[in-house]
Description:
Blueprint lengths: L4 H4 L3 H22 L6 E6 L14 H19 L5 E7 L3 H13 L6 E5 L3 H13 L4 E7 L9 H8 L4 E7 L1 H9 L4 H10 L11 H16 L4 E8 L5 E8 L2 H14 L6 E3 L4 H4 L9 H13 L2 E2 H10 L4 H13 L3 E5 L14 H6 L4 E5 L1
Amino acid sequence: MILKDSQKIMYQHSEVKIDLLRRYLEKYLIILSNSVFVDDIYIYDLFCGEGIYENGGKGSPIIILETLKNTYFANKAKKESSTKFHCFFNDNDGEKIGKLNINISEKKLQYSNTEFSTNDYKEILPSVVKKINSLKKEKAFVFIDPYGYKEIRIKDIYCLLENKKSEVLLFLPTQFMFRFESKGTPESLFTFIDEIVPKEEWPESNTGIDFIENLKEGFRRKLGNNFFVDSFIITRDKNQFFCLFFFTSNILGFEKMLESKWQIDEEEGRGWHYDQHADLFSNIEKSPCIDYFANNLLGFIKEHPRTNADVYYFTLHNGFLPTHTTQILGRFQNDNVIFVKKSDGTNARKSSFYINYRDYKNSPNKVIIKAK
């Protein structure tokens, strides 16, 4: 098989893709391995490659196993977890799987029950879905980083999510898809879009960003309200946008992905772009741009009084973090724009908003936030 340069050399935009994967898994594995409701964690990398690029860059399977190793020793030190890890690496190129096996052995990363296969994506997917649908006190994470998009279908993503025991991170070459959309849609793209929304209802995309937003909204509508969908945009060159899409039914998992995004993009939590001046300005502290969200949040509260759970959900759905909302609500409170009552009708302590997962889960009506 003749490999593209991007399959042999790890470029900076590919490093960012893997960095998001690593940051998320660091949070995801710690939370799940410390949960009394989770005995085993299954991780699937369905287009894994050989793990090490020719220029030494680490691919997804090595990053996955290194993160597992760190989690294993962290749990062992605290003696708080007996969770077992299971990894499944697939690539239809047997030579890549052979090299991956060697790379794993050389780096001494055997801290999970690890399986390998050399099947096509469509051949291996039914067995992965079957396994995930059988899970009870286990969780799964599926990373899909295909060499194109012809084999990817939203119905397959839904099948992976249906049991609500898994999360999916999908990379799509959206720039190529957008280019084909505007220059004669090929059959593969037509089939992909038509499954999400009837082609006649597909909105026109004026830019690559428009195409990504249209895809994200299409995914959300197709999967329904029981699932969260988010995107992370990777700008490779000027006006060249690729994207990772994240799917989950778990609101805490969704929050952890948003945290990972905001760690990389401190201003917008939206994506990454190449900055040729990074060496000159990388030490400048960046602040999140939250004014636009602040206006939306105030409008949300003005519609009618909102509970802390309502505001938590609204925050995440808009791609922001509880820390952002707490900061905004504090500003509203100081400006005498809102007032906050406890469930018994008495005034809440100043700056007590309870916008977090724990209170969302256990005390969803702890306070009521009203506009004045």
